[in-house]
Amino acid sequence: MMLYLMDLWDSVRGFMASGGDVLWLVAAVLFAMWVLMLERYWYLKWVSPKQHQAIIHTWDEREDSTSWYAHRIREAWISQAKQDLTARMLIIKTLVAICPMIGLLGTVTGMISVFEVMAVHGTSNARMMAAGISMATMPTMAGMVAALSGVFFSTRLDAQMKISIEKLKDSMPHH
């Protein structure tokens, strides 16, 4: 098992080295994005149901649920629950959107490396140019993969949050 982990770590290090420093930035953004998404999933599954039950219980205990004031109170509670539920979603969506841009930054820095090799050694040294081309393509690919995973899971998370809010609204009748 330990040998397998060492081989895995060597593979990751080799991949990160072939992509240059920008690949570390993609990894950091990806890590932050996933930490935030996992936190939101945890909140959605464990914290918000308890909060929604407390809101529903408080609403059911009210004597007045039909007046204009009661409707405004209901709307305020639902709005607060929605705000608590969707907190940090804008940050997640922003991180998803900048992943490809960081990948393109890696493309630019990799191509600059290729041009430096061409300026110093000429176009005859293909091996040295290949390292720069790798530095140009790896971050782009990594940025796109990171963005795709983020788009899929943040969209799914967003849909589950909307369903949760709709269930809360349906559980708070107003006549």
TrEMBL record:
Topology relative to the lipid bilayer, per the entry, is:
Multi-pass membrane protein
Q: Provide an example Pfam family for this protein.
A: MotA_ExbB
- The reply on keyword Ribonucleoprotein is no
Q: Where are the transmembrane segments?
A: 22-43, 90-115, 127-153
Which compartment or compartments is the protein found in?
Cell membrane; Membrane
State the UniProt keywords alphabetically.
Answer: Cell membrane, Membrane, Protein transport, Transmembrane, Transmembrane helix, Transport
- Please identify the protein, giving its name as recorded: MotA/TolQ/ExbB proton channel family protein
Signal peptide as annotated in the record: none
Organism, as annotated: Shewanella surugensis
Q: Which InterPro entries match?
A: ExbB/TolQ_transport, MotA_ExbB_proton_chnl
Its family? Belongs to the exbB/tolQ family.
Asked whether the keyword Transmembrane helix is assigned, the reply is yes
Task: Print the organism lineage.
Answer: Bacteria, Pseudomonadati, Pseudomonadota, Gammaproteobacteria, Alteromonadales
Query: Where does the MotA/TolQ/ExbB proton channel domain start and stop, copy by copy?
Result: 63-168
